[in-house]
Backbone:
């Protein structure tokens, strides 16, 4: 059923994970790195610091995967059982590893901390195992061969696990991986997940290599294209025509074809390319639009300020919305949204202004108007979002970024042709 | 081996987890909530969008736990298999649930999005199952009975999973738990986790019933006290003396002893009790302070506006920081923070103003000044936060709320004794 030496399974050990005291970021880190290496992974598990259940979980993992990566449980306390149980499963004795023992002594000496006997427990290594040096802590990692499979034991703290993975585990896994995998993500706005899937159903149905999968995000759909090949070039040449076809189908609704680019990053880059400065006037989003823009490094080159005009008085005095508009049309109206973004000259000069006003809860919860002014061209959109207070505000923030992107793209193409 | 109806296992479904595209925050959330309910959990697993492996994982989970919570895979696409496979395991047919179908139609109608046929897949419910209403999305949850056990299927997006868990799953799990568990969370600020733990080490060591556990949050420590007993009254009487002792030890650094009260909610309530109106002037937090305050229902009774003065020009023109201060002391200085909050009369009158300025990245990343002005009494605090851009901004936001709380408490106690 599985290709030999091709499937990796993660088994994270620690009662603190079962209690939800900490988030399992190790699993996400390792999973991504394993996918990058082109190795398949079908299962991840978490088990507590319990000898019986840990043994049972290791046996299960070895029965269905070729490489089992165990993280956590390599500490000096009695709760730390991973090495002991893995050795038992492999039928190997634990022996004192003199080099690791010396490293532990040096580590404590250097920090002036008193060493206790149980610290040497960390220097015990199953016979026949490969020791992975820990340059950031006291617990060495180990690779234990088991029949034609492997168990790889890594320390739990991410600051020790990550460097050890890059230094020792990646070279080991590269050697035994038969193919390379590569993936690209196409990110789409203004189209729901089910519509997006319908639009590319034929491509999904026909997929073999590359594979195509859709992911729903708040206000976005991500389409991941993953190819396998003998090297990066082969993967790239398999991915390219798929990306081209997705661009044909989704056109401008694709804001990026790069994994690391967020919607706000795409908007900031677009503003930068046009040399445009942006400001915001926010009511229900209350700073979320500004906050997402500012989370892009280098945002200060395009973003000047946001007025969070939560009360009507602020909408009037800070953003210049007329009192009569607030009274007659109310604060949540097309007219108010329009007036919020009307003035690009005051209080500070800008090229683009985005405004959001709406109800985050109450009877009309989710009713939101978003306006964008690009050098006098004003567009207003009306939305009815669903969900709780935070969800409505997050949806409004995403749609404010989408409107900004659309309006700026339109403006830039107009001036290019004029 | 297991107490009937007492062990819960988590099975998260999604190839995106196996690929490490996303961190499994649902597992941490659910694990913590399950522990709060006094239910034991020995295993967590992740499996991809693959029919065979999903079926096998569900069967394994049902063989060793009483309640299996499945998250993810309830979407409208062909990849979404959870409901189909869970029904197959339970030997139940999927039937169209008219109420859910109507909810989906309304959801799309309200948003003016075109509905496609595959959306109705989400309204298919296994016969005999209990439907859990989704108020934040289109996928209903389901509880499927299986022999004397249960499968609980929840949607993957945290914004849908969390409210559904609180609204529908908590009451369900409470009903089937053989003993009553009750927990209270004491939330502490201005004290680190290891210091907090040391301060109550004797209490933790002596714990049996109630149990005491600490959880580190950004800028906060939560101390959870969990009692088991025959009814709520018995639990309450066990918890009360512990809470009293924690109050003795942490004093005013406890901002609440209620689970549902967030730091921003505590601040809003405090401002309300004093009849105080608040405004903010934010640079690096860029609206996050405003956004957290506004996320409290009823925030409009205390919050007026925030000026997100990201560029120096905005700090000068909008918030009145002197040009000479920005030039000599720079934008990230005690003096700038002070001037940001100086004027409580303009542009709008307020009683409290909080200001934040700092570096979110670069050489001095994490260096932040936070000022708070309560009717002319100004306090400034200096911080050196660690972490990436977002983490620094989140830490600064939390400390801005902490400073507001401290400053307002001080003001209210002063006027009470004057």
Residues:
């Amino acid at each position: 059923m599985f290709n030999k030496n091709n499937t990796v399974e993660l088994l994270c050990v620690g009662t603190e994970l079962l209690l939800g005291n900490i988030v399992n970021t190790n699993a996400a880190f390792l999973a991504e790195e394993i996918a990058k290496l082109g190795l398949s992974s079908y299962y991840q598990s978490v088990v507590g610091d319990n000898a019986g259940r840990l043994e049972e979980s290791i046996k299960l993992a070895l029965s269905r995967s070729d490489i089992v990566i165990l993280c956590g449980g390599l500490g000096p306390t009695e709760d730390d059982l991973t090495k002991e149980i893995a050795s038992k499963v492999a039928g190997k004795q634990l022996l004192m590893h003199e080099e690791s023992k010396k490293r532990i002594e040096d580590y404590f000496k250097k920090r002036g901390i008193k060493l206790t006997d149980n610290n040497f427990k960390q220097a015990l290594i199953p016979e026949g195992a490969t020791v992975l040096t820990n340059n950031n802590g006291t617990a060495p990692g180990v690779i234990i061969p088991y029949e034609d499979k492997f168990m790889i034991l890594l320390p739990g703290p991410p600051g020790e696990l990550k460097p050890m993975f890059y230094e020792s585990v990646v070279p080991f896994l590269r050697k035994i991986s038969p193919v390379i995998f590569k993936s690209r993500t196409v990110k789409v706005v203004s189209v729901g997940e089910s519509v997006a899937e319908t639009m590319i159903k034929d491509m999904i149905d026909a997929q073999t290599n590359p594979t195509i999968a859709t992911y729903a995000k708040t206000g976005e759909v991500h389409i991941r294209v993953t190819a396998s090949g003998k090297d990066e070039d082969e993967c790239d040449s398999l991915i390219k025509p798929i990306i081209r076809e997705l661009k044909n189908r989704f056109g401008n609704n694709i804001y990026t074809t790069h994994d690391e680019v967020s919607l706000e990053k795409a908007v900031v880059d677009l503003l930068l390319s046009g040399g445009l400065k942006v400001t915001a006037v926010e009511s229900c989003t209350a700073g979320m639009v500004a906050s997402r823009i500012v989370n892009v490094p280098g945002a200060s080159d395009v973003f000047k300020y946001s007025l969070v005009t939560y009360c009507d008085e602020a909408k009037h005095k800070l953003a210049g919305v007329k009192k009569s508009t607030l009274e007659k049309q109310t604060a949540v109206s097309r007219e108010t949204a329009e007036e919020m973004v009307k003035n690009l000259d005051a209080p500070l000069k800008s090229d683009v202004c985005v405004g959001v006003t709406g109800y985050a809860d109450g009877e009309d919860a989710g009713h939101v108007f978003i306006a964008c002014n690009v050098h006098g061209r004003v567009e207003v959109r009306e939305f009815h979002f669903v969900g709780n207070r935070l969800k409505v505000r997050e949806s409004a923030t995403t749609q404010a970024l989408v409107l900004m992107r659309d309006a700026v793209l339109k403006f830039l193409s107009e001036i290019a042709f004029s």
User: Anything to note?
Assistant: Residues 269 and 302 of chain A are 9 Å apart (CA to CA). Chain A has three domains: 8-176, 180-256, 263-417. Chain A is about 40% helix and 25% strand. Chain A touches chain B through 89 residues (CB under 8 Å).
